[in-house]
Design brief:
It is built from 3 helices and 26 strands. The strands form 3 sheets. It has a 22-stranded antiparallel barrel.
Length: 546
């Protein structure tokens, strides 16, 4: 055991993990009735760079992997200087703000600044980040990203007022052009791409009071997308929500969203409207809870002759069979998903400029499973689900193509299984695993391209003396259909493994060293067909906490 720990610590000293994921069902991760699994597409997180198996031998040279930094906050405590028998270890102060910077094999450089605070009823936050990637054997496989998030809140006796300003800008090249064409220098200007997005908004919500019978959450935002190809989108979003208690354990409520969009996609002007309204009734008695509602959706685009509407029942049943240890749940859901270029280009930056954008309608989503805790050391969630989706969106690209288009399967059915387990083996040692499997059945398209049917992940972290933290993550992605050749033969990506390791060493109460190694197995991957990702990637630097 001592030998094992010594080897583990030696490795952890120099490495730090960066989590990867492969989108499934239109999202970077499966969306389940499980708060641990996030919907990345509907958030403003930087899109994830996921490695991807080389499809044909010899076609793509020096395939590589674009990595992202994942900041992990840890609490550290230095060893006391020559302690006496009655001395108590001095705790290192906890700092919530930090400046993190570093360089790497491709990152030139990386930087992140995070600041938050509270004073006299106000709370504020700033999160700024920059990443440049160069020094590549493929000249056009470089990019630059800048992002920021500012928020300000004010708390009164009755309400909380929030405001935010988010921006995102990236410059990159569609470097598949350099592989598909004989003289890429002639196309150097045409393959360049710049994307700018801004999101400004506000929110008013009730300050929590246990005895209050009503609750409200009123929000509004303005979102803009613009790029070098002259695509534009302006979204005005209104999100009023509220609820009212009408008796012991009984509550009525409604969630809603109304979006007005003015856009120009591929030179075609568009005016769109999207409505989402869900009235509901909730009931809770003892260990049993129920929430039932009806989700109503409407969508119209003046560039499309057909409007779309959906009315899908919503039901969520939960029973705490063994309170705290075992909860059984089941339900139904669904509704219309408003696909926007604003979101799609963040998921797939190689999306073409002239694409057809229309909503997908989930006519049925039936789910059931169990969740709970095992003592105070482990938590778990297991779920099966069935989905039936009309106009399911699929990313398509020709086997010799450089830009992605959007296609829509008339009716796609998905049968899925998702299992997650997290276990605190020791106070210093934590581990977990997740398995997600989806069986896609298409109707008018050959396959659901670029969606891995099987995804597995295993992670572990170990902290020594509260100063040194080592992490490891192994991601496994199953065989995935990527494209079709001229004869209609499906081109598959083979199963691949992505291993990432890392470490963080606290020098003192404010300064720490970090180092990451991504794609440790040096696999030749693609996330998007014809776009090679980087190989073994190493970067590191300093974090200053204050």
């Amino acid at each position: 055991m001592k030998i094992f720990l010594s080897l583990f610590l030696a490795l952890a000293f120099s490495l730090h993990v960066s989590a990867q994921g492969d989108p499934l069902g239109g999202k970077d991760k499966l969306v389940l009735e499980n708060e641990r699994i996030e919907d990345v597409i509907d958030s403003d997180k930087p899109f994830l760079k996921i490695p991807y198996q080389e499809v044909k031998e010899g076609e793509l040279s020096e395939i590589s992997y674009e990595s992202k930094d994942l900041y992990v906050e840890t609490d550290f405590e230095p060893a006391p200087p020559n302690p006496r028998v009655l001395d108590v270890k001095k705790e290192i102060p906890e700092y919530g703000n930090f400046l993190k910077a570093g360089f790497g094999r491709f990152a030139t450089p990386f930087a992140q600044f995070y600041l938050h605070g509270e004073q006299n009823g106000y709370d504020y936050g700033v999160d700024l980040n920059h990443l440049s990637a160069h020094n590549d054997v493929i000249p056009f496989r470089e990019f630059r990203e800048n992002g920021g998030n500012f928020h300000l809140g004010y708390l009164t006796d009755q309400s909380k007022f929030l405001g935010h300003l988010k921006f995102y800008n990236t410059r990159y090249s569609n470097y598949a052009d350099t592989m598909m064409r004989a003289t890429p220098e002639l196309y150097a200007d045409s393959i360049k791409m710049v994307v700018t997005q801004v999101d400004i908004g506000g929110q008013v919500l009730r300050n929590y009071e246990e005895e209050a019978a009503y609750d409200y959450d009123l929000g509004a935002s303005l979102q803009f997308h613009g790029d070098r190809r002259s695509n534009r989108e302006l979204h005005i979003n209104l999100t009023p929500n509220g609820s009212y208690s009408i008796g012991e354990g009984i509550e009525i409520g409604a969630t809603s969203a109304l979006t007005f969009t003015s856009a120009s996609i591929g030179g075609q002007g568009q005016s769109r409207i999207f409505m989402d309204f869900t009235p509901s009734l909730s009931y809770q008695a003892g260990d049993f809870s129920l929430k039932a509602g009806l989700r109503l959706n409407y969508y119209n685009n003046n560039a499309d002759s057909a409007s779309r509407a959906a009315a899908v029942p919503q039901l969520d049943l939960r029973y705490h069979l063994i309170p705290g240890s075992l909860t059984v749940f089941a339900g139904i859901g669904g509704g219309l998903k408003y696909n926007r270029y604003y979101d799609l280009i963040r998921e797939n930056r190689f999306l073409g400029s002239d694409v057809e954008i229309k909503p997908s309608i989930e006519r049925a989503h039936v789910f059931g499973g169990i969740s709970g805790q095992l003592g105070n050391k482990a938590d778990y969630n297991a779920q099966v689900n069935y989905r039936k989706i009309e106009d399911a969106m699929v990313y398509m690209i020709a086997d010799t193509g450089a830009y992605f288009s959007l296609a829509y399967d008339s009716v796609m059915t998905v049968l899925g299984l998702d299992i997650e387990l997290n276990y605190d083996i020791l106070e210093e040692l934590k581990a977990g695993a997740r398995l997600a499997y989806n069986n896609y059945s298409t109707t008018t398209l050959a396959k659901n391209f670029h969606r891995a049917p099987l995804e597995m992940g295993i992670y572990a972290s170990y902290t020594y003396d509260k100063r040194l933290t080592g992490t490891a993550e192994l991601n496994i992605f199953g065989t995935t259909p990527m494209s079709q050749d001229a004869e209609g033969t499906i081109i598959n990506r083979k199963t691949f493994l992505d291993l990432n390791l890392g470490g963080d060493f606290r020098l003192n109460d404010r300064l720490s060293l970090w180092l990451e190694v991504n794609n440790l197995l040096n696999g030749k991957f693609q996330r998007w067909y014809n776009y090679a990702e980087r190989p073994l990637d190493i970067k590191g630097g300093l974090t200053f906490s204050f």
